[in-house]
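Annex B. Sample input.
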Amino acid sequence: MTAENAQKISVENRLRQYKKKSQMRTIWNRLKKNRLAIFGLALFLVMLAVVSTADIYYNYEQDAIAQHLSLRFKGPGQTAGHPLGTDQYGRDVLARVIYGGRISMFVGLATICVSLSLGSLIGATAAYYGGKVDNILMRIMDVFLAIPNILMAITLVAAFGTSLLNLILAMGLAGTPKMSRIVRSSVLSIIGTDYIEAARAYGTSDMRIIFRHILPNAMGPILVQATQTVARSVITVSSLSFIGLGISEPTPEWGAMLSAAKSQLRYHPYLAISPGIAIVMVVVSLTLLGDGLRDAMDPRLKN
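Annex B, continued. Sample output.
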């Protein structure tokens, strides 16, 4: 490698980094114009901040776990200090919704970390090497894609147990095939660009090319899919808890709260309304944000 070629590659890398910053700035400017997307982002961040700081204004053991039978079935506003009422054990509903959100949102974010890590590795490897490697990896992913995510998650949780770690791993593995497909498609769109060929000519290792040069420039569709995956993960963990395969009592979780409230719907419907609204708010906020990101990253809509 001559000094002239090395200098040329260095200049190309600096131009690419400048272009990437300019693209990110352009995407953010487009996103800011989408009021629904900004509303979704703000709503999600507010909910994330509320559940993250729950210990400041509620005591987990006393308000969300401990039973106070003298306060059972107090409706919203009937008792001071319990704005959303109490459940069948006298526990504060608002405290349980907030602490339940901590678990549901943590599981959703942890799930996307698992599926994004595995999906990026599999999809980028398949696209980069192509040929037999691509065929073998994608055929394996096709087999798992034929199984619905919720069914695969139920199978894995039932097989390995209902701990929080098993739940995250099961949902992450269930979302890996679709994520790997999206990563592969994004990587294929940039695999033949000049800066990739320049990195190969410079002698850069394959793994460094994939993780340093390819994946960061293919993050557009991946980010959109990530927001949608978090929303689906919140629904999935709530569904598993609702049928008894997720988080179980007395730990607060939105799906488990809905399951406990189903027998009280006739006389105490407020027990199901609060966690139900919380699930809807998270899913709607992430859906709006995902739609906004998709539109902001679509060059056909730049005008």
